[in-house]
Design goal:
Chain A has helices at residues 2-18, 23-51, 74-98, 108-127, 131-149, 156-187, 195-201, 204-222, 231-237, 240-250, 252-263, 270-292, 297-325, 328-363, 379-392, 399-415, 420-452, 469-487, 489-506, 515-545, 571-579, 612-630, 640-661; strands at residues 55-60, 67-72, 550-553, 588-593, 604-609. Chain A is mostly helical. The chains are: A mainly alpha, B mainly alpha.
Chain lengths: 662, 307
């Protein structure tokens, strides 16, 4: 455990030391110290994952915290590993990305102080086993990410998004405080370890109520529907590396919270398990569905994160259903699939946001309708982005597929149970997950193609050629992870099965024999590697066949001789084919001016998609809360004398109360 | 070993024959003599000898795409069960890998079509992406039905479905087979979803996506497309051929069912008009409906509802 805290201190030290350096060098300091610190923390977590021995450290703080325990088990270690590696990649990318903002008198110092703080606070969340320490770390995580995302705070939409984000995070914390308070009242202790006996002795209704409060709290952080509305606002506003770490790593802490919450229970009601599964499937399906209609690259990626969080929650739901039906195979594969997908998503989502950031720096727009043909200016980014798109659409031979394969196996093992509820839930989730996957293919082909393929759609956007070294390096590393996990899946399945075994052990369920899965993954590994080699060989054959038989010409326009780049399919027109048959579910705000008369002067059409849940559930709810709160506005009226009066009244009441208590 | 040889022979020969038979049946209905059934072989080698014209808008992705798509479909063919239910590679969850490999091929094809920046190819790509997205859920429901009936999580469960010759099992298997036939028509871009012979770009799906491909690229794309139809047909054939036959008979029956499905596809193509574009999603959704019916039969049987 000392190694871990040393690592944390080194990361913090990097942030503090960067304050002493000039703008240009801050990033390098942070990179070096994060490399050292993350090296230590990943060594620590790998050690726990390899040996399976949990580590503990008890620290005596003064009141009100008291004795706090930091406990790192396989579950914490798995998250620490992801945070360390992906956090380090983020700092590398940040150096390249932030170099575009040098010399503009911006708050670099704060930015490079909060970046390491975000990384270490996430790690601390994963090891804190004491309610107050956990909540403090949780809050540091939310606040540091808030300061990071509002870097361009002179822009109105950035500030608005920041305020929305911080509000959502505080609703989340309020629910967590409520849930944890009930838990510590039940157990009489603030230590996480005391919750399990307390909950098994508690009334079932109380146990479910606590589960609901904490689950919703963590779901807000994770971005499960219908609590996802902060994500599509926050990610476009943040600098790209901040979106990357928030989407790739930070929202996973919400999933960590849900998993930690499950470990508090010895038995989970099957209705709760079905509810978790339903949350996961609905989030997955509608996340990718809303992503389809987006034109803003980062907004699209935000919705795709929501989808992937849904897939992870689906895995957790399958795990819980397996446990409640006593099908350990399904439970184990469900959890392992969730962990594997979590690892994979942290990699390819960072990759995608890195790519989106590079595109933004080059073109200064995130609107896909204005982009196109970027693959010629930035071939590396295009290639990496393509791999990322294929990985996130869960296509073989890349990592995204492996996680979903394990989840599908969990579902199919539910189907083979010959027990009607399990069969029904299995087939339903298989159908929904495969439709989600099919939509992901549409979304990401649309995204890659409109940004990188074809020709530029808007010639007023000027593009500097050349790519940024550090950003390209960070993307290359992420691509390498995607490919390695994809072609050597058996090792990473084993890695993901370590925390999955822990989840099984905590519910006192036996770990099933998964040699069938390992065998399948080994065969796949051979198949994928030989497929890659075969493709390379075919490429050489094709080169030889086409030697001096290759001509260049313009795209075949079917006889039309003057094609312009404006006639290309755009992201909206690409998605329209899909969205039209299911129109009623997707409300488009349309603004049409039809051509009139014989010599029409002007005609225009503009459309904007909106988030149905944000429009019809969250906004009315906020309006209602705002209306109720206005009734209290007289309390804060800006009159200093009145505030002093409040203080006096408070003092008198507390003195009277203290005397009365005696 | 014999399985590997037999399956590789099937993979090499059947896709060409499949197309050849469809064309021959169409010419029969049109009252023409028509090309020989091995004409697709000659077309393949003729195209290989030609050069390519690349659009200036394209990048390396366009050059790699036909290869990648072909390799993905070929890998799927290694997994697909063929004569007697035997495949070259069999493992737990092989049907998941199978459909995702076909999905990977689709992904690459769409990205490649969009590379050219042509509005026609964009249209074809968008349609392909939209129309085939319902195929995967249907396929998974079919596989769910076979897994529920057999209790195993791979392609071998297909043959267990009708193994006892019970009416319900046979009915479910036939329904699954017919859903897969619609899947074959959709994925293979045949009538009534798409017309491979149309000469109006606005009405095409798959054909319009490959407008800018020529020479060896086109040869590979045509072969991949035929191979994709063949592997779907071979999964379908496994639903329809009874289990437990001797290998030689099973092999002959398998080839016969595949060619028969080509004949039926040819008849459909000759006797039906292509559906209006707006009706295509409904037709594709039909596969989901059939799959759900097949699954319900299995479920009813399991819960004791069917005697």
């Amino acid at each position: 455990m000392n190694i871990f805290f040393l690592g944390v201190v080194v990361i913090l030290g990097g942030g503090a030391l960067s304050l002493c350096f000039c703008e240009r060098n801050k990033a390098s300091v942070v990179i070096i110290f994060t490399a050292l610190g993350a090296g230590l923390t990943s060594f620590f977590s790998l050690n726990i994952l390899a040996t399976g021995i949990a580590r503990e450290l008890t620290v005596n703080f003064s009141a009100p915290i008291g004795t706090a325990v930091f406990r790192a088990d396989a579950l914490s270690a798995f998250f620490i590993l992801i945070i360390s590696v992906m956090g380090f990649l983020t700092t590398i990318y940040a150096k390249g990305y932030m170099s575009a903002y040098l010399g503009q008198g911006r708050a670099f110092g704060a930015h490079f102080l909060f970046l390491p703080i975000l990384i270490l606070s996430m790690m601390m969340v994963a090891v804190s086993s004491h309610v107050i320490v956990f909540l403090i770390m949780w809050e540091i995580m939310s606040l540091s990410s808030f300061f990071l995302m509002t870097f361009e705070n002179e822009k109105k939409d950035v500030l608005e998004a920041g305020i929305y984000y911080i509000t959502a995070m505080h609703i989340c914390v309020a629910l967590l405080v409520a849930g944890f308070s009930v838990l510590s009242l039940l157990s009489g202790s603030l230590d996480f370890a005391s919750f399990k006996p307390a909950l098994s002795a508690a009334k079932p209704l109380a146990a479910i109520a606590v589960f609901a409060a904490l689950f919703i709290g963590f779901a807000i952080k994770a971005g499960l529907m219908p609590f996802h509305t902060w994500l599509p606002l926050a990610h476009p506003a943040a600098p790209s590396h901040v979106s990357a770490i928030m989407s790739g790593v930070m929202i996973k802490l919400g999933i960590y919270g849900i998993l930690r919450l499950i470990t508090f229970y010895t038995f989970i009601d099957s209705r709760v398990s079905f509810a978790v599964l339903a949350f996961g499937l609905i989030t997955g399906l509608f996340g990718i569905y809303f992503a389809m209609a987006q034109r803003d690259i980062k907004r699209l990626l935000a919705y795709s994160s929501i989808e992937n969080i849904g897939i992870m929650t689906t895995g957790i739901g399958l795990g819980l259903i397996g446990l409640s039906f006593g099908n350990n195979y399904m439970a184990y594969l469900g959890f392992a699939g969730a962990f594997l997908h979590l690892l994979n998503h942290s990699i390819f989502k960072e990759l995608m946001f890195f790519g989106a950031g590079s595109v933004y720096l080059k073109t200064h727009t995130r609107d896909m309708e204005h982009l196109g043909g970027l693959a010629k200016q930035m071939p590396y980014t295009a290639a990496f982005f393509f791999v990322g798109s294929a990985a996130i659409s869960a296509l073989p031979p890349l990592n995204g597929f492996i996680g979903e394969l394990v989840l599908y196996l969990a579902m199919f093992s539910g189907i083979t149970l010959k027990f009607v509820p399990a069969v029904m839930s299995g087939v339903f989730s298989v159908a929904v997950l495969s439709f989600t996957g099919a939509m992901a293919v549409v979304v990401f082909t649309k995204m890659y193609s409109t940004v990188f393929s074809g020709t530029p759609r808007n010639n007023s956007i000027t593009i500097k050629t050349g790519e940024y070294k550090f950003m390209t390096f960070a993307m290359a590393a992420a691509v390498l992870f995607c490919v390695v996990i994809g072609v050597l899946p058996q090792y990473f399945f084993r890695l993901a099965s370590i925390p999955a075994s822990l989840m099984m052990a905590l519910s006192a369920a036996a770990v099933p024999d998964t040699s069938g899965v390992v065998n399948a993954l080994q065969i796949l590994s051979v198949l994928f590697i030989s497929a890659v080699i075969a493709a390379a060989a075919l490429y050489l054959v094709k080169k030889a066949l086409l030697k001096d038989k290759t001509a260049k010409a313009s795209t075949w326009g079917c006889g039309y001789q003057a094609p312009s780049s404006r006639i290309q399919y755009t992201s909206s027109s690409f998605a329209a084919t899909f969205l039209k048959p299911i129109g009623p579910f997707m409300r488009l705000e349309e603004d049409t001016v039809n051509p009139e008369g014989l010599f029409p002067r002007r005609a225009s059409y503009a459309s904007k998609s909106r988030d149905l849940i944000a429009a019809f559930a969250i906004k009315p709810a906020l309006r209602l809360i705002g209306f109720c709160m206005r009734a209290f506005s007289w309390i804060q009226n800006g009159n200093t004398q009145q505030y002093i009066l409040y203080g006096l009244v408070f003092l008198i009441i507390s003195i009277v109360w203290a005397m009365g208590a005696k | 070993m014999t399985t590997i040889t037999a399956n590789i022979l099937f993979i090499l020969i059947m896709p060409f024959l499949f197309i050849g038979v469809i064309n021959r049946v169409k010419s029969f209905w049109a009252g023409r003599q028509g090309p020989s059934v091995i004409q697709p072989f000659f077309d393949f080698f003729r195209l290989l000898k030609k050069g390519v014209v690349l659009s200036r808008a394209t990048t390396a992705l366009f050059y790699w795409a036909p290869i990648a798509a072909f390799i993905a479909v070929l890998a799927a063919a290694f997994i697909a069960p063929m004569a007697g239910g035997r495949s070259i590679l069999a493992f737990q969850g092989d049907m998941i890998v199978f459909i995702y490999l076909l999905g990977a091929a689709k992904f690459v094809n769409i990205a490649s079509a969009m590379e050219t920046g042509s509005s026609f190819e964009g249209m074809g790509a968008a349609r392909e992406a939209a129309f085939t997205s319902l195929i995967e859920p249907a396929f998974f429901i079919i596989m769910g039905a076979s897994a529920a009936a057999s209790g195993v999580m791979d392609f071998s469960g297909i043959r267990a479905m009708a193994a006892n010759h019970e009416a319900s099992g046979v009915l479910a298997a036939v329904l699954c087979g017919s859903a897969l036939f619609i899947m074959l028509l959709t994925e293979g871009s045949r009538v009534p979803v798409d017309d491979p012979n149309t000469h109006l770009e606005l009405t095409m799906i798959h054909e319009v996506m490959v407008l800018d491909n020529s020479g060896p690229d086109l040869a590979l794309i045509n072969y991949s497309s035929a191979l994709k139809m063949f592997v779907i047909a071979s999964v379908m054939a496994n639903f329809l051929i009874p289990a437990g036959l001797n290998p030689a008979l099973a092999g002959a029956l398998f080839a016969a069912v595949i060619l028969l499905s080509a004949v039926i596809a040819g008849c459909v193509e000759s006797l039906m008009a292509r559906l209006r574009m707006s009706h295509v999603p409904q037709f594709v959704f039909f596969t989901v409906s059939i799959a759900i019916v097949a699954f319900s039969i299995v479920l009813l049987k399991m819960s004791g509802g069917l005697k």
